[in-house]
Structures are given as structure tokens and as C-alpha cells.
């Protein structure tokens, strides 16, 4: 029998995790929405960024939260580089070709990481958020609370960006209707490059957050890619709120799945939900696609 | 056939070429058991890629779930032998049928609700993870072994040469199935679905039904291959439901060129052999070199040669025709 | 007058707030070439999509040879004898032209060789040059594409063929050839045609009867010369709202 305390604990952990997942998926939703590019290397970019975090932490004793400040602009530029090198050539090509190229990129990143760092998971030796509060029966880890808060703040900022700035509005109108946006004189090539850069920069932020409590190993990206796509599928392109709700569902499902079944079956729960959503709500739960 | 024209004589010729190639390989390996096992694995892997060609190449559905079917078929066949004493020579058909049943259960709603492209790819990738997680719960982390018996009714031999021959027969059967599909109504229908599903619907094709047919044939073949895979691997566990192997099958299919049997075989044999070579030579120092290679080739093919090896074969063919 | 081959009754289709089809009732008579015209966004393509089952109508009924076909899946509707072509061609790029047409023939002839024979016959009926049959869909010209689209639809042996803007993008000489081809399809193959067209020259020269749509409604029908003098039609085309 599962105690109410445990249920509560797992639900709260699931919510924190879910908020973080939505941040991870946000970049993907943005890229897919604006430029219709299917990126399967999303999680692998996160994994590479996480190794950066680990390296700076071990070699330079820099806290992951500080590394984020460096990583965000760096990965923005890396993102733009990837866009011009690999994404632009396959823009508008069949989905299969896009998937092939980005899966290829993912494999390259994964195995470079494997060659350099081996399969052994790595964690940062120290993070300023390495403590926890007790709230009655509930334990709240500062790191998890921190990433949840940062996720919310970032998504709020992103929301403002998309609604208040010229580039943000251009992104939104391109998501809604590409042809009209082009007619309105939006330079789609630059817009795409910036969007891709932004999406990748968001991943860099996520990776720093992840490393405040998580571990990195070369295959970390695969599960993050899949989870992000699940969230995008559920959220539809219904905007940031859709992504957040879907992220929460995935986070809580994973957390409760590992409680009620076994930890090794937790992803099965998430993916079964994914099946059901795709089958019965093919346009996502929270908006159109 | 893309490369050799369409006449049935040419197809017979092509089969002959494949058969001779398959027959020559063991002579070259000269009784080295390790290489024979490798050759058998590579041939079995090629068969999987050729089977993938039915759903991925002809029907154009990016299936990333190959090892869901390989796993189900292989484990059912093995369990039938271990628990019920049913010899695998019969059991593989039950294994194939079990995979096919899974495919029907998954395929009907999937195609009914119009899930395609990236969503189909994700769904099938998720399928492998679901099977992996659930079978881990059911089977535990243990490795299971087949009974030590050997013989034709068990499709299991200590000699890798014979296992290689069995894999070759499976490859040829899979090629034959592809050829039969390609030359019949179903093949034309599947290809038109790949090209443009809506236009296909508008010439009277029940696209859902035909996609389901493709998925059924593909899953049946993979289910049958599952047991041979287990014999070559010497054991089985929940780890058979492996995402990256499933991905590799699709990768080889794409690199070979959609709808091209010979492209698929060439890409599977070359890449898989190279991959195994890297793994055995550098596996301890630079792990993952084989996958790195797949990744690089995939990016290059995607950007510069989207029609894969088949596209290259085609071009050579055209150039030769012009010369004549 | 004989029975209608196709009839729609109060057909409605909306997308969000837009009523793309707003209570449309039309009849298509056996053997005729009906012109369907109207300014951009009038709902012509949407009407085709409803008839062929691509879209499910939100209201109203569709009858084909006196049988109700509303809500049937597309492939069943096609099997009953309706064919269509596309405003923007949808070629099977990686298949040979012959194979693409033969795929259409397979609906009536399951044997591949037989289907190919039929495909060749249709190709020569439409005047497609022999040497393009082995070419792939991505290697031919626009005019040829349009003919292949037509051939592919004809190969399913329709009684009724819905043709969406087949004239768009063609050169004047090609247009004349296309007009002849359509007439030939109608007279020699006994296929009833509904022709959506912006090019008035094409409509006027082949249709004895024209239906005009505007903002999802039928605003006029009759002989081409009558319709083109109808004040409502003129206003619709000039973009001035009738007072
Ligand atoms: N799939 C769709 N989703 C949303 N709106 C649609 C869709 N298809 C058509 N519409 C809208 O329905 C209306 C009618 O469009 P339709 O394409 O039928 O016009 P048309 O008469 O064929 O125009 P044209 O001459 O430009 O081809 C338009 O306002 C169009 O924007
Ligand atoms: Mg139109």
C-alpha cells in the first residue's frame, strides 16, 4: 500500500520535473512551430551542454548556475551554426530526410561524448542548491525547486518576448501562417536562424539546471528528445501554456508511474499516455497542430 | 528493380547474384568461427533492413520500432520451446504471428487516426521503449538461455556456418517477398501512398488498409527473424527491445535508398561490417565509433544524396546506358 | 431533362468562422461539361473536397447516381465512379509516369500487366508522348504533369470527373490543346466533367452551362453568356458588395 505522504511527495516531485520538462520541450516546440523542422537531435544538444557544465564545474569549480550565463550565448551561436550547416539544406525537404539528418547529428554528438567521456554518468561535485527543506512530511529539494522556478520565469519571459517584441511577433505569425508572414516581408531565413539559435540556447539553460541535481551520460539526450516530442505532440502548437500543461502531465505521469509500478516502467507509462493522446486527440490536448 | 530493370529474367539474375555472393562469403572466411558469426549477424541484419523496406521504403512510413517485433517474435518462439516444447521450426511462425498481431493492434488505430511522418516515427520509437520497460517488469533483468539441443527442427546449430546458411535463406525469402510486393498491386499502391497519400486516396486506394498490410508483412518477417537473432546472440532478455538497434535498421534503409532492395542490402552489409570492425578493433579505446560512422554517413546522405545508395546505382546505370 | 448524375443539397462546410461552403445545392447532369467559376476563395475547391470525401461536410447531403455518398470514405467514393484532379498538380515524383497512371488503372484491373496496358492506352488517348512514360514524375513539364494527373484520374474509369483549374499556368497554345483534350474526354469517353476555372476563355468555349460561386454560395447559373452579364456576378468579380 502506498502511503499518502509518498503519493504527495511523488506528485510534488512530478510537478517540479514537469515544469523542467516543459522548459526542455519549449525550444523544440518553438523550432518545430516556426520552421517546421523535425529535430531529433534536441536532447543530444542538451547532453553536450550538460558535459560543458560538468567540465567547467570540475576543472574550473564554476557552479552550474553560473555556467548557464556563459552557455546561453555560446549555444545561441552554436545553434545558428548548426542551422546554416545542416538544417538549412534540408528545409522544406521530406520529413524523413530531416529526421535522417538530425538523427545523424544526434548519433555524432552521442558518440563523440561517449568517446571523450565514456559511458560512466557524471555529476557535478558541488552545487549551491545542494540542500533540502522539510515541509511536514514533504521533502523539497532546493535544486528541484530552483529549476522549477527558473523554468516558470523563463517561460514567462519567453511569453513576453513572443508577444511584445518584433522578432517574437514575427515568430508567432510565422507559426500561424508561413505564407502570410513571408508576404508581410519577414525575412524567414534570418528568422529561422534566430529561432534555431534561441531554441538551442534554451536547451543550454535547461542543461545547467539539470546539472544542479542530475547526472549526464552520452545517452541522456535520447530520452530527453523523446520526452520533448511527446510534450510537443500533446501540447499541439497551442503556445506556451500547452507546452507547460503537457510537461506537467508527463512529469507527474513519470513520477507516479515509478511509484505505482517500478522505476524501470516509468517511461512506459509516459509513452502509453503518448499513444493514447496521439490516437484520440491527434491535434494535441491543448491546441491545434 | 531500380538498378536492373523490370524483366523477370533480370530479377532471376539478381537473385542469382545475391545467392552466389552469399555462397562465396563463407569460403573467404575459411572456418574462422568469429567471422562466421559476424557474417551470419550481418546477413540477418540485412534481412531486417530488407523487411523494413516494405514499410519504410515502399509505404514511406518511418518505422523506428523494428526491435519491438524482433523481440516479441524471438521471445515468443524461445518461450514456446522452453516452456511448451514446441520446436522453433514451428515456433517461429507463432513468433511471427505474435508480432503480426501486435502490429495489427497498434496499426489499426494508428492509421485510422492518420498518424504519419514524425508522429509515426515517434510512436514506433516509443513502442520499443514500452516493450522494453514492460518486459523488464515481467522478465526481470535476467538473461535467459535456449536449451542446449541443436538440429534443424530447432533451427539451432553449433556451427556458425550453418547458422549463416539459415540467415542467408531468410534473406533470400525476404528479398523474394519484396520482389513479389514490388511487382504486384500492393507494391504500386504502397509506393503511391509514399509519394502522396491524398492523391493516392483520390485514385481509389484505401490507404489505411494498405499501410496496415505493409506493417503486417514487415512485422511478421521481423518476428520470424527474432528467434535467429536470439540463437546468434546466445541469450535473450528485455534488452532485446533495443531502441538504437531499431534506429539502425531504419538508418540503413534510408542510406540504402527508399524502395531499393539492393541499396538496402549493400548499405546494411557494408555499414554493419564496418561497424563491427570498428567495434572489435577500437571498441575498448573509442567506443561508439561504429555509431559515429552511421551518424556521419546519415548526415552526408541526407544533405547530398537523399536517394541513398540506390540513387548512386541509378546514376551509374544511366551513365552506362548513355555510353552504349 | 434527364436525372442528375451528381446532386448536392444544402451542403455546408465551415472552417472556424469562415463558411467556405454555405448551403450549396447544385445538380450535375449526365454527359455535360459544367463550368464552375467564382473569384478566389469562393469555395470551389472546398466543394470538390466535400464531394470526394476529403472533407466531411458540416451539413447537407450529396447524391451520386441517386445514391447518398455523404460521409463515405474517399476511396469508396472514387470506386463508385468519381475522379478528380488538383489545382496544384500532385505528381508521384519518384515513380515513372507509366507506373503512376497504371496505379490508377489498378482500381479496375488488379493485374499489373493489364493495368499497364490500360495506362498506355489512356496516355496515348491524351496525347502524352511515348518517351515520357518511362520518365519519373519529377522530370516532366507542367503541361505534361497536368496531363498525367488527368490520365491518372481517368485510369480509375470515372463517370464524373472534377477538374480543378487545369488551365492555370499553361501557355496559350497549350491551353487550346487542353480544351480539345477535355472535350475529347467528354465526348469519346462519355465522362461528365465539372470544370473549375478562372480562365474565361476555357470555360466559355467548353461549357454549355455555368455555375457561379461567391463567398460559399451559388450566386448565378445558366448559359455562359447569360451568366457573364449577370450584375451580381460582375459585382462579385469586381469585389463590390451588391447594394
Ligand atoms: N483546409 C482549410 N482550412 C481552413 N480554411 C480553408 C481550408 N480550405 C479552404 N479554406 C477557406 O475556405 C474558403 C474557400 O476556399 P477554396 O479553396 O474552396 O476557394 P476556391 O474557390 O477554390 O478559391 P481559388 O480560386 O483561389 O482556388 C477560403 O476562405 C479558404 O481560406
Ligand atoms: Mg481552388
Task: Give a structural overview.
Chain A is mainly alpha-helical and 289 residues long. Helices cover 74% and strands 3% of the residues of chain A. Chain A has a two-stranded antiparallel sheet with strand order 1-2. Chain A is globular, with a radius of gyration of 19 Å. Chain B has one domain: ABC transporter involved in vitamin B12 uptake, BtuC. Helix content of chain B is 77%, strand content 0%. Chain B contains 13 helices and no strands. The longest helix of chain B has 27 residues, at 207-233. The model of chain B is unreliable at 1-5 (pLDDT under 50). By secondary structure, chain C is of the alpha/beta class. A six-stranded mixed β-sheet of chain C has the order 6-7-8-3-9-10, with helices on both faces. Chain C has a four-stranded antiparallel β-sheet with strand order 2-1-4-5, with helices on one face. In chain C, helix 3 packs across helix 4 (112-125) and helix 3 runs parallel beside helix 5 (142-154). Chains in contact: A-B, B-C. The B-C interface holds B 183-185, 188-189, 191-192, 194-196, 198-207, 258-259 and C 52, 54, 73-75, 78-79, 83-84, 86, 90-95, 99-100, 102-104, 106-107, 110, 112, 115, 137, 152-153, 155-156. Bound molecules: adenosine-5'-triphosphate and magnesium ion. Chain A: InterPro entries: ABC_transp_permease (IPR001851), BCAA_transport_permease (IPR052157). Chain A: Belongs to the binding-protein-dependent transport system permease family. LivHM subfamily. Chain A: Its main location: membrane. Chain A: One of its GO terms (cellular component) is plasma membrane. Chain A: Keywords: Amino-acid transport, Cell membrane, Membrane, Transmembrane, Transmembrane helix, Transport.
The top-level CATH class of chain A is Mainly Alpha
Helix/strand class of chain B: mainly alpha
Q: By helix and strand content of chain A, what is the structural category? A: mainly alpha
CATH-derived topology of chain A: ABC transporter involved in vitamin B12 uptake, BtuC
Q: Give the total of beta strands of chain B.
A: 0
Mean pLDDT value of chain A: 88
Largest interface (CB within 8 Å) is between: A-B, 47 and 45 residues
Low-pLDDT stretches of chain A: none
**Share in helix of chain B:** over 70%
Distance between the termini of chain B: 20 Å
